[in-house]
Amino acid sequence: MTATHKSALTTLLFMLLLAMILPMSGCFYAKQAFSKTSGGNMRSDDSYTYISTPYEPLTVTLYDNRDNEPLWTVDVPIGSKVSLKFLKNKVKEGTTRRPDIMQWAIYDAKRRTARYENTMAVPSAESRLMRVSIRKGPEFPEERIEDQTFPDPDHQWLPVEPKKHRSSSDNPSASFTGN
Question: Rounded distance, CA 102 to CA 120, Å?
């Protein structure tokens, strides 16, 4: 095998390897981009997701770092997640002291995405601090007790009749004989 053949073969193998690896990494990033997983979506779009579990019940608090004032806090329910997204320089909705907008949603941890239904004006990125703390646990989700209906105790039950089996002949005393 000549040197040019080895070089061409090496280049071909490298291209095949890239062709196999790139789609897999794309799937990973696509999943992260459209799914609200714990910590964020692996992009620098200033969005975060925190999931509360029985052994890690979370409290998320946003502070104004200039005067250490808590602006927003939420105890994330067990089995739920909170997703936050910060939008920069929204002049119409914000103020000079709080020019950015924070959007958030609390929803079931099994769901992949949710619509941000809540908004509030927040300080710019340099002036805000997000603290996530773990509450004393373990905590468990509240049990949903459904109304159970019980049968009427005065109901008269009928005795069970014995099963009647069909036979191949009209004579019930006839037995099956096989060859």
Answer: 5
Which single residue is written with the structure tokens 């910060």? 86
- Angstrom distance (rounded) from CA 77 to CA 74: 9
d(CA 88, CA 102): 9
Q: Largest Cα–Cα distance in the chain?
A: 99
Please answer whether residues 93 and 121 qualify as being in contact, where contact means their C-beta atoms are separated by less than 8 angstroms.
yes
The alpha-helical segments, DSSP class H, found in the chain are 3-34
How far lies 163's CA from each of 8, 135, 157, 159, in Å?
Answer: 80, 60, 18, 12
For the stretch 68-127, pLDDT in tens is: 999 999 999 999 999 999 998 876 666 778 889 999 999 999 998 889 999 999 999 899
| Residue 110 DSSP code | T
